[in-house]
Amino acid sequence: MAAGADIAAFRVAIPEFAAMTDPQLSVALDETDMWLEAGMWHPPDFVWARWYLTAHNIKMALGIGGAAGSGSGGSSEISSDLFVRMVAFGERRVMFGERKVSTTEGQITGPGASEFDDTIYGQKFLRLRSRNIPPILSV
Known about the structure:
alpha+beta
């Protein structure tokens, strides 16, 4: 469970989520800790990477929650990697096949990798990640 000092520091660093409760922020920080390995980062960068990834995850969750409850008349199912599998309007349904790994200008990204571009926090996380964890090229 995230310490009170971690939560307070997160609120100061990223005030957009200051209104969230301590338990909500604790869960968000704990979830981020499952995905980050502190030993792979320069210590000051790890703190910010953790905050940016947490903020990105919260922002994405709030965005999806808002879209699902928008009452726009249609419905959609969102898969675990945040991509639409089916859209329905009345009796008409459009279903999409499983996504393949995309290739763009020689850069290969896996499912969900481009979602970091959807928030400023995701973009900042990617910049820190590229500085701390260089890409591996195997030939």
